[in-house]
Amino acid sequence: MKKTSLVYKLIITFTLILAATSILVAGTLSIWFKSYYFNQKKEEFNSQSTIIENAAITYLTLDSSSNLSTLKNVMDFVSKSVNADILIADQIGYTYAVSSVSHEDYKFSNLNIPEKEMNILKQGKSIVYNNIKGNDGNEYVYMTPIFKGASFSGIIVMIAPLSSINSSLIKANEVIWLTAFVAIIIGAIIVYFYAKKRLIEPIDKIKTAARRIARGEVNEEISVTSNDEIGELADSFNVMAESLKTVDENRKAFISNVSHELRSPITSIKGFISGILDGVIPRDKEGYYLKIVYDETERLSRLINDLLDISTMETGKLKLNLQEIDISNMIRQCLAKFEGIIKENGFNVDVTLEMAHQYVYADNDRLIQVITNLIDNALKYGYENGNIKINTKSKGDKVYISIYNDGPTLTKEQTVKIWDRFYKADISRTNKVSTGLGLPIVRLILSEHGEDIWVENCKDQGVVFTFTLKKV
Ligand SMILES: Nc1ncnc2c1ncn2[C@@H]1O[C@H](COP(=O)(O)OP(=O)(O)O)[C@@H](O)[C@H]1O
Ligand SMILES: [Mg+2]
């Protein structure tokens, strides 16, 4: 695991937090336990001392020689039960009875209890005084006064070696600290596995998928189903992968369409020219076939121009030269170019312009391209001898220009697809002047202007294309 890895950082952070809390809890527990343990000891000594006190009073008041052995027996018994040595001293601290040999040297000597401690005992209170005979630290010494009636007449001293007390404390501490340590280790392990399952594995999946996509394998999808941020990341990733897939498919389709569109005119040009060169085409027919060749080269150059237009616009290199244009005038001029076709096919063209001169902001050449394309489509896909209606209407700061033609209505799918490059809805009429690039170009030009175009079916038959322009 790298030091920069997320799991590593997580485990370290979590372990540090857990360790800090565990140490705090264990420390508090151990301090608490120590004071609890000493309190217990004190209470135990306290309750046992009353038994000795009674025996000591009897010894002091009655015949001492016969009662010393009774006192000794009681002291031995209590000493064993509380696991401490017991000394009995008189009111000035002079020892006259000792329970075990280990403190035999204290017998018949003064314990030299300082004035301050002595005063506390005289008040009838028990004390813990570890410094008896200058024996600091090694023994736990508990002293309780003996009262005969109201008079202070002696001291019971209970001495437990600190080592025996400490060994119990050490044991308890060992348990406390071991538990804390185990908690830290188990916590770290849980975090490791949780982080691995919930963070590392899904992130790895996303990483691998991203690398595959970078290598061109666009069919990647990741299956991370958690509903947290990682799950959201995986979802966004899948959306991105999906759109890359679409882009890739579009790219492939585009290349295949372009190649196809280029191949057919080139094939026929090649065929007719070789026919002429070989003499297969008779001399008197040469003019006729050269005309076809000329038309095909026209079609090729138009296709290439369209492609260049699309490329310019899609790469954002199209510079619009916005100026004030009389749209009414432009519509009339564009229609004039089609006069021949209109007459030939018997179209009935109805132009209803809201104003004789309506000024809009647009790029002159590009707007001609838009109108020409739309009129060209209307004539191409409208019924022969049918109606063509062109009208303008202003609303707010916009002018709406509609071009209607009689003809079959478009299906819902077609109304979406006609804006795609190379899409030709009317397959039966794919004649030579159809590239499927007209509408995409029209839409790109208008969106460069910040304007919109849409198509609607009319009630029984016919379609109408409407686009907007900004009024001056
Ligand atoms: N006025 C229209 N009426 C019916 N269909 C139309 C009309 N204009 C366009 N279409 C459909 O949309 C398709 C795409 O149009 P376009 O992009 O201009 O390409 P092209 O004119 O080269 O076929 C056409 O092939 C046709 O099927
Ligand atoms: Mg067209």
From TrEMBL:
The chain crosses the membrane at residues 6-33, 140-163, 175-195. Its main location: membrane. Keywords: ATP-binding, Cell membrane, Kinase, Membrane, Nucleotide-binding, Phosphoprotein, Transferase, Transmembrane, Transmembrane helix, Two-component regulatory system. It catalyses: ATP + protein L-histidine = ADP + protein N-phospho-L-histidine. One of its GO terms (molecular function) is ATP binding. It holds the Pfam family HATPase_c. GO terms for cellular component: plasma membrane. It comes from the Bacteria. Residues 257-472 form the Histidine kinase domain. It is a multi-pass membrane protein. Its EC number is 2.7.13.3. It is an enzyme of class 2 (transferase). It is found in: Cell membrane. Residues 197-249 form the HAMP domain. This is histidine kinase.
